[in-house]
Amino acid sequence: MSESKIVDVARRAKVSVATVSRVLNRSEQVSEKTKQRVLKAIAEMNYTPNAMAKNLRSKRTMTLGIVVSDIEVSYYAEIIKGVENMANSLDYKIIICDAQNKQERELEYVSLLQNRTVDGMIFVTPYMTSKELIAVAEEGYSIAVIGRYIEHESIPCAFTDNVKIAKDVVNHLLEQGHERIAFLSGYADAIDSYERLEGYMKALRDAGLPFIPDLIDNGDFNESGGFRSFLRLREKNDAFTAVFAANDEMALGVYKACRELSIQIPSELAVVGVDNIRLTKYVTPKLSTVEQPKYTMGALLTEKLIDQMNHNEFSDRRVFKVDSKLLVRESSSYAIERSSNQGEANTS
Amino acid sequence: MSESKIVDVARRAKVSVATVSRVLNRSEQVSEKTKQRVLKAIAEMNYTPNAMAKNLRSKRTMTLGIVVSDIEVSYYAEIIKGVENMANSLDYKIIICDAQNKQERELEYVSLLQNRTVDGMIFVTPYMTSKELIAVAEEGYSIAVIGRYIEHESIPCAFTDNVKIAKDVVNHLLEQGHERIAFLSGYADAIDSYERLEGYMKALRDAGLPFIPDLIDNGDFNESGGFRSFLRLREKNDAFTAVFAANDEMALGVYKACRELSIQIPSELAVVGVDNIRLTKYVTPKLSTVEQPKYTMGALLTEKLIDQMNHNEFSDRRVFKVDSKLLVRESSSYAIERSSNQGEANTS
DNA sequence: AAAGATATTGTAATCGATTCCATTCAGTGA
DNA sequence: TCACTGAATGGAATCGATTACAATATCTTT
């Protein structure tokens, strides 16, 4: 047990506690020979400073919180990885807060900030409103947001352009000859859903195609929600030839439904998702999707947040609009599907 | 900003700090009317107790650490989820420690215990030796281990019987008519690898089959390692008709190699993995594997660890040997593969 | 109504570090 | 040798809570 405290070290090295503290923190202020003496005592006693006492005095915990709506979803897992690595390299630890898909739990974690358990917090949650997030920041807490733009000078944010994502997807499907494209949205009140719907509508309008409300349904960003949503969609209007799912998980739900209904992808139905989670490359046919630099957003924003916390002033650059990239794979391209299948079967 | 401290509340409610502290912690000891007065003051000032001060005084942080070798691997993600949920329900937070597949980083996290950043730690790491883990416990720190048996009264551990897992898999393959079964191990010095190899050898011996060293190779528990390992195996001895991979990730590496070499699974080669990660159900053909109750192990052990920390005595039950279950799917059963494929194509 | 028991409240020490301010020490120039 | 300067060191307050102990108020009981 690391029982020894700073006074024990001081006693052993025959110096005051102040001196021990100095060699630990600002060793340039102490003479070489006492410094060696103290270091020796520290080593002999196997002393490590008590982090709790340190925190109390310095008013910092060197810990960050990250709130995600479900750790198991690999979209979040990759962001966490980015956050964790950057945080560690800057000597911070991270506490993960899993809202477990329950909207109300997201805000609960703000208490970690209030009682000083963490120095700052990163929110990766589609449900909390901008207003709620801004309110937290205005109480004086350091927060950052991944996944959307926030109109507030003290909140760093990183996000991709959801409207562009949706337009890219829809344009791609139009190019493939699809004219009746269904949109499988996430929760209706999630910001991502809203913006992607907007892009979907814009792209249709630009192409001179009508907007048909029956071609839209709301899932819940999960596979099972996508499954149910797709079935509802078919009941309302089964004339569509392509589905744009607001994320990959829901697209997988569509896959499942198609398997049960014996609908061939992509020959009978094209499917495109968003996020480029790992699974997309393993399913058959491989799922077309949109890549977002998840790891990078996590790392970038963590660096920014820590920087801002430590300098206590808002940096010039706080808004990071990162690039997304459409990845056309087998699920939305009949040509690709056929040649690729052959390739996989015959290449040695 | 939650600037107010306990003295401010005391002043406002016209009581002493001790009284305020009492209504916060042991409210039965204070009269109803002063209690109400204090509560009112707390609410009016929006006071929250400073966790750092609390920690220092109580010598507890209500935080647990969990060390895994890679958060992105879904095997760990599910364990984390179990740990996190149980921890939260007992008012603990968890700090995740990602060793990022670097063996030397695992032990570094022990410093979190030494400096009292966490009250206890859960290790889910195949690389650290039992000796190292026991040494940590004997310094007086609370730890628990998932994934293997530890011979030490103060360390709760949960694990599946690796020997049994391997025997189940090999017996299953023998039943399918395979006689030359390759074993794709993980890191040679990981405990899991060692135990599974043992089970593999035992099952062969029991069946009266020879043990052929050329049918064994070491991967690294990752997909890419499985890929390379499989190619090496083929160079050494390509007469095998089945592969038992020490985990699913490596089995996926085998899939990849087979695709490149145009080897049909399962007709030309049967493949079985271990862990039942989510991906196994999405690949074609679906991967046979062994289910381990990951979430349950995480939750169970967390509960045990916290209980032990708080009662400061070792509980009667600290060793949890949980059941594993062989899941035969398409990759190791030609019959199942054919009917299942037909099923997927035709069922409505 | 007094004495003793019990319930309520307050004072002050404590947790283990950091750091301001004061003091001591060594070195320099006159 | 003395006064002065800057460097090195020490003493003690401080961070914000909890809690042992002491003091006071309230309630029983006779």
Automatic annotation (TrEMBL), chains A, B:
The keyword Transcription regulation applies. Residues 4-58 form the HTH lacI-type domain. It comes from the Bacteria. Keywords: DNA-binding, Repressor, Transcription, Transcription regulation. CDD domains: HTH_LacI, PBP1_LacI_sugar_binding-like. It comes from Paenibacillus phyllosphaerae. GO terms for molecular function: DNA-binding transcription factor activity; transcription cis-regulatory region binding. The keyword DNA-binding applies. PANTHER family: HTH-TYPE TRANSCRIPTIONAL REPRESSOR PURR-RELATED (PTHR30146:SF148), LACI-RELATED TRANSCRIPTIONAL REPRESSOR (PTHR30146). Pfam families: LacI (PF00356), Peripla_BP_3 (PF13377). The lineage of its organism: Bacteria, Bacillati, Bacillota, Bacilli, Bacillales. This is LacI family transcriptional regulator. InterPro entries: HTH_LacI, LacI/GalR-like_sensor, Lambda_DNA-bd_dom_sf, Peripla_BP_I.
